[in-house]
Amino acid sequence: MHLIFDVNETLLDTRALDPLFQRWFGSEATRPEWFLTLQESWMTANLIGRFDPFSSLARSALRQLGAKHDVAISADDEQALVDAILSMPAHGDVQSALSTLRNRGHTLTALTNSALKAAHRQLEHVGLEGHFDAILSVESVERYKPAPEPYRHAARHWGVDTRELVMIAAHGWDLIGANAAGMRTGFIARPGRAMDPALAGVPDWRDDDLSRLLERIVAG
């Protein structure tokens, strides 16, 4: 089975960034606010047909948050955020779940909005790089998920139809995009993440434990 994984929040725990936001803004609650601003930036980039690197958008989102909260953000602060993104830990259920899939012969692909070089560093840092048969970035098509091009890129990489792929992510927008491109979808309910339970057809599977979710996907 071809299993496609999002990286940030799905495999890697973005809560590791909380101390930085606590230091800058006095509240860890500003970290999800920053991530929402970042999502808005790449979706805007998709809509206007412009592609800016993920790290540039991450820095811009931090500056926007600083302006919103009247907090001065320095170039050193921006670099500290980028460095922290590259060294986020994996969620506790990831290593075992991916190892089991590899041992059973499934094909594993990472498909991320991060830059390709950054994705390799992130996954190498947590010892996950070797679990993947391919690590793919939206850089190759210069369109961010949930646009259809990244999902089609994953299918082209393996020479298969998107209907043969299952996308696993912690973000509803990612899975809605994957579904629209023809993939089946699995939602991993990371802390603070939810999908509309009344949404028809998305996801095909959902769980709050990655190993259990993957067992259900493979069985299905």
Features:
DNA polymerase, domain 1; Rossmann fold; (S)-2-haloacid dehalogenase; alpha/beta; (S)-2-haloacid dehalogenase activity; HAD-SF_hydro_IA; 220 residues; HAD_sf; 12% strand; 6 strands; 9 helices; S-2-haloacid_dehalogenase; six-stranded parallel sheet; 2 domains
Mean pLDDT: 97
Portion in strands: 5-15%
**Secondary-structure content class:** alpha/beta
Shape: globular
Q: Strand order, biggest sheet?
A: 3-2-1-4-5-6
CATH architecture of the largest domain: 3-Layer(aba) Sandwich
CATH topology name of the largest domain, in short, is Rossmann fold
Spell the H/E element sequence: EHHHHHEHEHEHEEH
Largest sheet properties: 6 strands, parallel
DSSP helix fraction: 40-55%
Q: CATH superfamily name of the largest domain?
A: HAD superfamily/HAD-like
> Low-confidence segments, ≥5 residues, pLDDT <50?
none
CATH class of the largest domain, anyone? Answer: Alpha Beta
State Rg. Answer: 17 Å
EC number: 3.8.1.2
InterPro entries: 2-HAD, HAD-like_sf, HAD-SF_hydro_IA, HAD_sf, PGP-like_dom2, S-2-haloacid_dehalogenase
GO molecular function, one term: (S)-2-haloacid dehalogenase activity
Keywords: Hydrolase
